[in-house]
Structure formats: structure tokens, C-alpha cells
User: Fold this.
Amino acid sequence: LPLVLPAPQAARIGGLLAAAGYALVAGWGVPAQRTVWMIGVVVLLRALGANWPLHAVLLAAAVAVTAADPWAMLQPGFWLSFVAVALLVASEPAHEWKPPEAAGWRARLLAALRGGLRSQLVATIGLAPLSMVFFQQISIVGFVANLVAIPLVTLLVTPLALLGIA
Assistant:
């Protein structure tokens, strides 16, 4: 694909295909569909050369998701996922220190841990008001559990499950 398209565009299309494939393997549930539609909108906008602001991209993705599933807006997961994406993208530091390629594995691990902790803090604090509206509670244990569960599921459980399917 990079021989036909510019590498960033090929990477976006490859990411969309991978997300769609994973969503199909996972059973094409509503959260997986929502993710595929959101990624699809971003890929389409970038393919058209559109450089839209974050709020316009999220609005376009919300329109695509609700066109595919009109009842999606009534689900807390719809609002939580869109707000989480907006928070994480908007809170990304403009210039975050990253270890150079020649840095040791400890520096790269520390940078990854720092980034994961920052992302989890942003998501936990930013989604607290919506959690109160939808569930009338905020999970403090969820913050700690996600610090362990997200890397474990991402780096170990999901690859092993996909390997088992293959």
C-alpha cells in the first residue's frame, strides 16, 4: 500500500482495516462499531485533505455513529467514549519530552509509564462529571485497576487471544 499511497495515508487505511478486523473478531458489538466509525471518519477526512478542528471531527464522527445506530446517543458509552477521546486529544502536550531512539530501555519504559499515568489521570478526572450523571458514583478503584488492566489486556491478553484465534 505505501507504494501506491503516501505512507501516512496508507497507515491510516491499514489502521482502519485492522480496527474493522478486530471489531469483527470481537463480535461487532456496539462499542467496536463506534470505534470503527470514528476511525473511518478521521481516515476519510484526512484522505480528502480536510484539516478540521477537533470539535468538528468529533461532530462528524458522532453524525456517522448515529447514522449507523440512531439509538447510540441514548447510551452512556456513546458520551463517555466521545468525551474521553476529546479529553485525551485536547490534553496531549504540545511538546512532550520523549527519550531519544538511542536511550536505554529504562528511559523508554519510564516515558511510557509517565504517559500512561497522565492519560489515565486525564480520563478519570475528566469523565468524573459524566460518571456522576450516568451512574451517580465515581470509581476510585477504577483508576488503579485501569493502570494494571489496560497494559495487561493490551500487551498480553489481546495478542494471545488473537493468536489463539489464528
Summary: The CA atoms of residues 66 and 74 lie 10 Å apart.
